[in-house]
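Note to self: the last two entries modelled the partners one at a time, which told us nothing about the interface. This time every component goes in together.
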Amino acid sequence: MSKPVVATASLAGCFGCHMSLLDIDDRILQLIELVEFNKSPIDDIKTFTKQCDIGLIEGGCCNSENVENLLNFRKNCKILISVGECAIMGGLPAMRNDIPVEECLREAYINCPTVDDNIIPNDDELPMILDKVYPCHHVVKIDYYLPGCPPRADLIWEALVALLEGRELNLPYEVVKFD
Amino acid sequence: MGTNMESTVKHVIKEYQHDKTRLLDIIRDVQSRLGHVSDESVIEIASELNVSQVDVEGVVTFYHFFSKTPVGKYAVYLNNNPTAYLMGRAAVAKAFEDEIGVSFGETTSNGQIGLFNTSCIGMNDQEPAAIINNVVFTNLTPEKVKTIVNDMNNNVSVQDMVKELGDGNNQHDLMKAMVKNNIQRKGPVYFTDQEVGIGLKRALSMKPEEVIEEIKKSNLRGRGGAGFPTGMKWEFCRQAEGDKKFMICNADEGEPGTFKDRVLLTEKPEMLFEGMAIGGYAVGAGNGVLYLRAEYMYMKSYLENVLKTLRGKNILGKNAGGKDGFNFDIKIQMGAGAYVCGEESALIESAEGKRGEPRNRPPFPVQNGFMNLPTSVNNVETYCSAPRIIVEGGEWFKKMGTAQSSGTKVLSVSGDCKKPGIYEVEFGTTIQTLLEMVEGRTAKAVQVGGPSGKCIGKKDFGKRICYDELATGGSMMIFGPDRDILDIVHNFMEFFVEESCGWCVPCRAGNVLLLNKLETIIAGNGTEKDLAELESWCKIVKSMSRCGLGQTSPNPIESTLQNFREIYESKVQKDSNYVHAFDLAEAVKASCKAAGRIPNLGAH
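The predicted structure of the combined assembly is written out below.
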């Protein structure tokens, strides 16, 4: 039987969740035994080359590229998991959600004292900024959520292994407490 | 202006003898004289009363009818209860906006008129209704709105804008209200001609313990909705230790759809005050407080006058009822617009001049209530029962109703029926019988007990109105076949979000999350999973909240999920992977406009 295929992406996130995934330390060797990676920053595969079983999404959607990426993941992954605060709730990037996007752009590109170009970037190649930062499940259907900022390595590990083995998660309080 | 503000505040506070517990009255007076309670006024009030600014600020911002910004010479508060919408509220609201030229939540630039939404004002049987500077306007139409706005622009006094008066005591010189009683059905307990004072006389001829015993025998239970046995409450209060004790009447009838206390206060205030005196005698209290909701300000002078008359007849005051050594008097405390103050410990906090936030219990108010003294808080209707029970006997009362719910209940019926109004019916009456009585046979749903109660459908119309089947504080809203149930649920959830006092997280945040989730579903973007989550979140909010508000606020969702699940089911997506809520074109519009680029949706 072929190994389950995993893909990962960081949308409007800080890569902290990916770092946390790497924090599983030497278990990464076991992980390689357990699964095959497809599109992911971990192996630097840029486009899906086959249908995947699990997609891990870090970060929410702040621009059109994030949305496109996420839709693509939904299409190519049987199970999609929001990993971390930003994917689940928008996180730090969503702090701009109460401020109109025009105001944010003006502040960043026009009114900011260290800027001298006085132009809001408008090249057609650039992703278009969304009016606010959306959590992933507001854009596509998400199957599971792994909370944390970032979720602990143990949490990601346990969740992945449990999913692969088709059993219930065993999450001691220490792994999911955030206080 | 500054000095005027200072002198006004100083003057008001002097009138209340620098009494911190009168903070609500002080703020109301300052607001009515200055048009709002500014930051400077807050500082001045705090320094004059020697309390922290935060304490004053906290109270000003807690209550609906206090404002830190000018509310206008005329402040229009239009009720936004679902029943109002059934009766044409949308057109009336639009007429107000068009005629005044501002949106809701705004005041005209010349400071003449402010326009605001408000929760149920107790006029559900004569909607759409609004309160303008404490005067009630009922059965509004776009045409009437035109006249009213015209009058306001021409500085006509609010009272002169009332063209026709209601029935009964609404016509009293001190009330002159256009409010109608709409008493459709009188029963044997509340709307009778029992002579004022004979209940108290009889009670005073008994020992206090015997009075409590008689109330216990009647099996009278709290009429506000919770149904706690009144005799037991009085007994606890009597047994509690305290130099002074208080009888408080909860006339903060805030449950949307309830207005029966308004009618009892209008037609039977003597019976209410007599009941409070009987209770006072039974528990050993010398002081009564009528906590009257701000929406009923128009009754205040009238009720003050009733109290004066009763003092004149020696039913209240020194040696009340002619009993040597029994001194009992009642004062009126006005609320300021907060649903949560219907909860007894929140009401007590509010009556003490604070934010109306519920207290931790125990200790219960009967041990540690108003001013930390033993206090019995009872509903208007509960007190009105006492003189009748004392005169006719507990057995007589117990014979009516069901085993667990004795006597009759005054119901406030509104919505899609031919005869809305007040109905006194025996406990045990079925919803079906009631619907026939009120001529609302086409009903698709009945909201029993207001938003905090249950929304039931046809299959439950055979159930009985009583504490153990369908409990109600009196609110009965009827919804006809064409009404959108989810729209009503949405309205109720918005209400709870607005009225949560914010003290505990499950209620403060939980209700917002429930509302958001509901909106997702209504918009057609929910999934089966959202329904399951909605259900489980309802349970969390109910079980984790600190007071009755959060413990019941998920009821509109929970009971409709139970009784009208097919409506939710029809709204959610079944096996779609995509949530169609997200509209990329819409989401990038603003940023593309700011950057001066044309959205390029194809490329992404």
